[in-house]
Specification:
The complex is a heterodimer. Chain A is α/β, with parallel strands linked by helices. Helix content of chain A is about 15%, strand content about 25%. Chain A has a single domain, classed as 3-Layer(aba) Sandwich (Glutaconate Coenzyme A-transferase). In chain A, the strands form 2 sheets. In chain A, strands 4-3-2-1-5-8-10-11-12 form a 9-stranded mixed sheet. Chain A has a 3-stranded mixed sheet with strand order 7-6-9, with no helix packed on it. In chain A, a hairpin with a 3-residue loop joins strand 10 and strand 11. In chain A, helix 3 runs parallel beside helix 4. The two termini of chain A are about 20 Å apart. The mean pLDDT of chain A is about 95. By secondary structure, chain B is an alpha/beta fold. Chain B has 6 helices and 11 strands. The longest helix of chain B is centred in the middle third of the chain and has 12 residues. Chain B starts with 7 loop residues before the first helix and ends in an 18-residue tail after the last strand. Classes of the chains: A alpha/beta, B alpha/beta. Chains A and B meet through helix 3 and helix 4 of A and helix 5 and helix 6 of B.
């Protein structure tokens, strides 16, 4: 798949992911495309959790208003809202591990048809660490992956089985790529929706995983 | 009860020894005990094991102890921002134990609460689970993780009274309370030591029972990633 006119760009993927969110949800957004999801929640009352210890995360600060004591999990300066709550890291991961966070939207290097997720480590390459990703995928109510369907070399990242070390086993519920929306179901992945201009044939050709 | 010391070096007096285990608060460069780290560097103590979510950057935070080769091992969840760390790690000079972030925080909290181990779903079926006991509860697998008890905890808070009651500010709280709890001894560096009763007893984030020594000082509070929007965007 190298036809740039087909499928969704980063912002369309983020907008599609935002449709997954319902009024009143507490949600954790990962780094990269997932961060853009916040731009598309519209009128829905969504509370963003930042795992370094904050519920109710606001936008980036205006120039000059940066506060070194107020950052998100990507270590970027951010702002608070009138309903923000702060807490320590043990409490933060208590709410994550305890299933209080309705959904996490995060990026991936590979996803498998059984819901296995790999997004933290490439053996032989620089390993930076898993951060909070393993806790999030193990604990939150629903795990939604947003990523490009194929690698830069055109290889499918939606696989029968992950080749990279896992972040979580059988943890992914829904995959949103530039080509389609897929659900992890018994026996493989179920096509939920095709991206603009993408045919099912093209999707299947770009996908290693079983589409049932 | 005298907990207030004149400087980071004075507060560390008699507590440091080669090969010791230190738990440090902070997330990235936010809420790190920068004055105590500087004083530990000056002390020359070596072969340190640090439990800390991150390893600082090359010239700030725990990074300054990596420059001087005072660190033997890190227990962390993410070490991406530190080139010297990577150089020593890839060269086999530095040990690294990755812990999922929530597991690390809970290991500290548990250690401080007298809980030697706990079971968690985090990391089941991954490299993290290798060699760890697996136990099934209600049909789901969990792995055994151990509580951390450190020889020394070093933390950064916003305000303290002289009894060690601490108040943190915004996301600078992060790992500081659990790190403080797991130390056999805990030193807190704060921006301001205030008189008793100046802190609302209902709004103490960490009770002074966990804090043995306190210092006040000027903090650089470096920003790691300055992200802003322009006023025209609003």
């Amino acid at each position: 798949m190298s036809n740039d006119a087909k499928g969704w760009d980063r912002n369309r993927m983020a907008a599609r992911a935002a449709e997954e969110l319902e009024d009143g949800m507490y949600v954790n957004l990962g780094i990269g495309i997932p961060t853009l999801v916040a731009n598309y929640v519209g009128d829905k009352d969504i509370t963003l959790q930042s795992e370094n210890g904050m519920l109710g995360m606001g936008a980036f600060p205006f120039e000059g208003d940066e506060d070194p004591d107020l950052i998100n999990a990507g270590k970027q300066t951010i702002t608070e809202l009138n309903r923000t709550a702060y807490f320590d890291s043990a409490t933060s991961f208590g709410m994550i591990r305890g299933g209080k966070i309705a959904a996490a939207i995060l990026g991936a290097m590979e996803v498998a048809e059984n819901g296995d997720l790999a997004n933290w480590m490439i053996p032989g390459k620089l390993v930076k660490g898993m951060g909070g990703a393993m806790d999030l995928v193990a604990g939150v109510g629903r795990v939604i992956v947003v990523m490009d369907h194929t690698s830069k070399h055109g290889e499918s990242k939606v696989l029968k089985a992950c080749t990279l070390p896992l972040t979580g086993k059988a943890v992914v519920d829904r995959i949103i790529t530039n080509l389609a929306v897929l659900d992890v179901v018994e026996g493989g992945l179920k096509l939920v929706e095709l991206a603009d201009g993408v045919t099912e044939e093209e999707l299947r050709a770009a996908t290693d995983a079983t589409i049932v | 009860m005298k907990k207030v010391y004149g400087s980071a070096t004075e507060a560390l007096d008699g507590l440091l020894f080669d090969g010791m285990f230190i738990a440090a608060g902070g997330f990235g460069l936010c809420g790190i005990p920068e004055l105590l780290l500087e004083a530990i560097r000056e002390s020359g103590v070596k072969d340190l094991t640090f439990a800390s979510n991150n390893a600082g950057v090359d010239d700030f935070g725990i990074g300054i102890l990596l420059q001087t080769r005072q660190v033997k091992k890190m227990i962390s969840s993410y070490v991406g921002e530190n080139k010297e760390f990577m150089r020593q790690y890839l060269g086999g000079e530095l040990e690294l134990e990755f812990n999922p972030q929530g597991t690390l925080a809970e290991r500290m909290r548990a250690g401080g609460c007298g809980i030697p181990g706990f079971y968690t779903k985090t990391g089941v079926g991954t490299l993290i689970a290798e060699g760890k006991e697996v136990k099934t509860f209600d049909g789901e697998d969990y792995i055994l993780e151990h509580g951390i008890v450190a020889d020394l905890a070093i933390v950064k808070a916003w305000k303290a009274d002289d009894t060690g009651n601490l108040v943190f500010r915004k996301t600078a709280r992060n790992f500081n309370p659990p790190a403080a709890m797991c130390g056999k001894v805990c030193i807190a560096e704060v921006e301001e030591i205030v008189p008793r009763s100046a802190l609302d007893g209902d709004a103490i984030h960490l009770p002074g029972i966990y804090v043995h020594r306190i210092i006040q000082g000027e903090h650089e509070k470096r920003i790691e990633q300055r992200t802003v929007r322009t006023r025209e965007d609003a």
